């Protein structure tokens, strides 16, 4: 059975590891690229002074919109 993983869930929990996420990269500017192998999707975790935000904006990591978690 496929796990239900969405950007909404990540934005509410900020707990990618418990959802099977694996960090692939950290740009040192607040962005991290996470892979969810079970569903073959990636997501961008952005942290700034206002908080943590998960997005499907992964083109800066050389992925396409089709690869992104929604």
Task: Offer a quick outline of the entry.
10% of the residues lie in helices and 36% in strands.
Fold and architecture overview:
It is globular, with a radius of gyration of 11 Å. The protein contains one helix and four strands. With 70 residues, the chain is mostly beta strands. The chain has one helix spanning 7-13, and strands spanning 21-26, 31-36, 41-48, 51-55.
Quick tags:
mainly beta; 70 residues; 4-stranded antiparallel β-sheet
Give the percentage of residues in beta strands: 35-45%
* Radius of gyration computed on alpha carbons: 11 Å
Shape: globular
H/E order of the elements?
A: HEEEE
The end-to-end distance, rounded to whole angstroms, is: 19 Å
Widest β-sheet, arrangement of strands: 1-2-3-4
Total number of helical segments? 1
The structural domain count equals: 1
Helix content: 10-25%
Flag low-confidence runs: none
Oligomer: single chain
Q: How much is the average pLDDT?
A: 94
Structural category? mainly beta
Count of beta strands: 4
- Major β-sheet annotation: 4 strands, antiparallel
Give the topology.
Layout (H helix, E strand, L loop, with lengths): L6 H7 L7 E6 L4 E6 L4 E8 L2 E5 L15
Antiparallel strand pairs: 1-2, 2-3, 3-4
